[in-house]
Amino acid sequence: MNFVKSRSFIFSFFIILIITLSSVYFFGKTEEKLKTVKCFYRPFTIHGFFSEYLNFLGCKIWCRENNYELYIDENLKDNIGGFDTYFVPFDIKKIKFKENWIGKTRLSECKNKWVLSGDFYEKRHECNFKGKLGKVRREQYRKEIEKTYIFNEKFRQEVNEEIKKYATLINEGFVGFHVRRGDKITEVNGGFSSLETYMDRFKNIEKTKENKIKNIFVVSDDPAIVDSFKEKFPSYDFFSRPSTNKSYDQLEFNALSTDKKRVYIKNFLIDLEIIKASKYAIVATSSNVGAFIMLSMYPNCYTIDSENDELFLA
After folding, report:
1. CA angle 47, 314, 115 (to 5 degrees)
2. Measured distance CA(208)–CA(144) in Å, rounded
3. 291 and 208 together in one domain
4. Fewer CB within 10 Å: C terminus or N terminus of the chain?
5. How many Cα atoms occupy the beta-carbon half-sphere of 161 within 13 Å?
């Protein structure tokens, strides 16, 4: 009787052991698969530059946290007239893109080899990349900007020459506003806010400053906005760079020739470099441009979206 029990016990023990080892093996293999997923991303293709750029950084952070490999298209045809026209190329793996990969794999089903850009965008918006960013996430973005947002030598010289024209304004001290208009006006809860909202925030901040500032440099995708500020608030001095850029609409921008895109993007990037030379900036972080400025200038940046200057990503 004891012998039977003993045999039964040994048999049960080996069954449990086999099941345990099998589980470890197969689950281990599954985990290994998950950690070797190659995530494929095509940045700067159809959306606004900073929308795609911050989304790209979010994907980089997400991949690093999940131990995935991130690739971009080595034959990338971007929507900004050539990324290397302005920036040093990314130090990131590249691979040839095949159109028939589109839609084959979803990021939530990371069991296969490829995950694609459209899925990345949606996933980034699901896993706490959308909405308020805490300190840890903010610092992750800031570090990624330091590593990737680097002008090439030629464009850096152009930027420096343009900034020299505003040396007096910079020496006197100024505040920067980024005011998003253009196609945002048609969006519900988009980047659109009244001029009074910016000025109210500005005046409240200035109450805490010893040296009051009267100079305000305005960056906007609507060139007419500066005249509106001057008309409504004549006791302040408003500035902007002369620009041939029209009020921004993403669909209209997508249809421009490569040369016209380059002119627009160059003007815009130079504007942002000037605003970064301000004492502080006031932005709407519901606009990805505003979010970028906040990340680049923190803590010398304030948002009209939150009294506590919390950072949001659209």
Report:
1. 60
2. 32
3. yes
4. N
5. 8
Residue 279 lies in domain:
151-313
What residues pair up with 151 in beta bridges, in sequence order? 87
Q: What is the mean pLDDT of residues 292-310?
A: 85
- CA pseudo-torsion sign 259, 265, 268, 274: negative
Find out whether 182 and 249 touch, Cβ atoms under 8 Å. yes
Residue 75 and residue 96 in contact, taking contact as beta carbons nearer than 8 Å: yes
Residues 164 and 262 in one domain: yes
User: What does pTM read for this prediction?
Assistant: 0.78
Per-residue pLDDT tens over the stretch 68-102: 777 776 655 677 878 889 999 888 877 666 554 44
Domain count along the chain = 2
181-199: average pLDDT: 66
Residue 123 confidence (pLDDT): 52
Q: Name the 3-class secondary structure at 286.
A: coil
From the list 4, 176, 23, 151, the residue with the least C-alpha distance to 86 is: 151
Q: Indicate the average pLDDT of the chain.
A: 75
The answer to the question of residue 106 being in a domain is yes
